[in-house]
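This entry is listed as follows:

___
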Amino acid sequence: MNTSSSVVGWFVEKKHNISKHFSLSEANDSLAKENAELRELLPESFYKLQDKVYYVNDTLYEQQYQYIPAAVINSSDNKRDNYFTINKGTKSGVGEGMGVISKDGTVGFIVDASSHYSIVKTLLSEDINISVKLKKNNEHWLLKWNGENNRIAQINGVTRDIDIQEGDEIVTRGNKGIFPAGQLVGTVKELISIDGKPTLNVNIDLAVNFNSAHHVYVVKNFLKDEQAELEGDLMNNE
């Protein structure tokens, strides 16, 4: 009888653990969807149609950003160019050129999409060019990655007259419409002075741990094409 009870208990425990695993997975997916919906209610997700208005109202604000929750199902973070595969594609509204973020910060952008999957080029890539700015004063540069440390990226050519210090937050500039302005990228880790040069190089401690990122959000900007078309016409006329 004791042996029988032990065997039954073992199976019951295994059944509970398996049930708990799938329940947690379902809860996580539900939470990710809820977080995406909450992000869409943030002020930076709306385009303000009138000035001096402080409440979100359909006649005064227009939805600009939508967030599509997804999960990372494959990834790399130790190569010269690193990518994520996520489990959402064109059938979910995901398309090439859309930004990807996580709860911690900026991840990268979509470079290819099929019906059910997409490839994300992360900040840990050789030719990444994400426009970023210093949160406290809006000074802006391009973020680079030198391929050495998967937790640290670089900003080069910062003039010495700019007030920038260790611990300052670096956020997205939002100028290309890929990311909302103000999305966290990282914090200033180290200022590097090079003899004979009038500028500084800056190491940025990235907000996202690319080795453990799982739940992400694809950023869909409803006004991105309008901006690109207008700027394209301007460039063609110059």
In short: The chain is about 20% helix and 35% strand.
